[in-house]
Amino acid sequence: MRDLVEIGMGRTARRAYDLDDVEIVPSRRTRSSAVVSTAWQIDAYRFELPLVTHPTDAIVSPASAAEIGKLGGLGVLNAEGLWARHSDVEKAMRRLVDTARDEDPTALVRVLQELHSAPVQPELLGEALHAVRESGVTLAARVSPQRAAELTPHLIAAGVELLVVQGTIISAEHVSGDADPLDLKEFIGSLDVPVIAGGVADYRTAMHLMRTGAAGVIVGHGFTPGITSTDRVLGIGVPMATAIIDAAAARRDYLDETGGRYVHVLADGGMTSSGDIAKAIACGADAVMLGAPLAASSTAPGHGLYWTAAAAHPSLPRSRVAAGPEVEVDLQTLLYGPSSDAEGAVNLFGALRRAMAKTGYSDLKEFQRVGLSVRG
């Protein structure tokens, strides 16, 4: 039964929980982390880490996408970002770093809005995607629902192997006042590449997206407090632990409904430490989409700054531009260690392996069944 609380006369609301509210419960068994696997597979693509990057220019360039892929994760390039709009992205990044010294808190957002007012140039986008593909890693790119129909042919022509359709909040049908709606079921059915879609915040929307034929559903990002500010700007928000668990329940029911079609759940947002990653998997996520924690990498293109694509919205930005973690290490150390940081900002996936080992689980699917407790 849902935990409902009365918030006023005649009005109830569901009690929901964030990742900070839950803890992983140890079991009677432990094992060596050397025999733990963090590998996962979506469609035909296998990855050694349950890591998908949040598609922001702050952490994903063609070079960093290739580096992440070689280390076992999946880098997702933003097809509507700076690499698709400017021939000299490093110059744009230096401008952002210089603007970060401005005491005006809106200055960085204004610069991002200006940089994103330049049109997307398919030839620049193609060059960026080609650089990733030439590295030999899986090629993935993100488009918004509003521009999916327009840009996807260019992405397919460039050899994109996994397509991410991601907005602040997404539905099975995007309705526009001046264009035909994007019917995701029809759109996905017309493609030969797997599609990951989101974000969603509840069981019903997750189930609808799964029924479109999506290979994966993204939980979070747009409504997760922190760097994103959708909760403050639009008043929309769902605590992350509850959102992941609801989407995992939709995955289970959809598996039964279809007689065996498994749709992956990706948690995006609300994770600032390795412990949050472990709790997201424990709540039912198959993989995590990391953003701000990866800004600690010395090769992150944002030079320590972090933002999401929503920061550049021309009229209603819903993301802050902020400094990333206070540590700076190479990407391999950030993901695999060793670490001298005691706060969970480094060795992100070494810590996940240790959490799985300490609770006696050998792979990610098993770990999704670990016990959870709620803080009093």
From TrEMBL:
Listed SMART domains: IMPDH (SM01240)
Statement: the UniProt record of this protein carries the keyword Oxidoreductase: yes
Pfam families registered for this protein in UniProt: IMPDH (PF00478)
GO molecular function: IMP dehydrogenase activity
InterPro entries referenced in this protein's UniProt entry, alphabetically: Aldolase_TIM (IPR013785), IMP_DH (IPR005990), IMP_DH-rel2 (IPR005992), IMP_DH_GMPRt (IPR001093)
Transmembrane segments annotated in the record for this chain: none
Domain IMP dehydrogenase/GMP reductase intervals: 18-306
A biological process from GO: GTP biosynthetic process
Keywords: NAD, Oxidoreductase
Record has Membrane as a keyword: no
Family: Belongs to the IMPDH/GMPR family.
Protein name: GuaB3 family IMP dehydrogenase-related protein
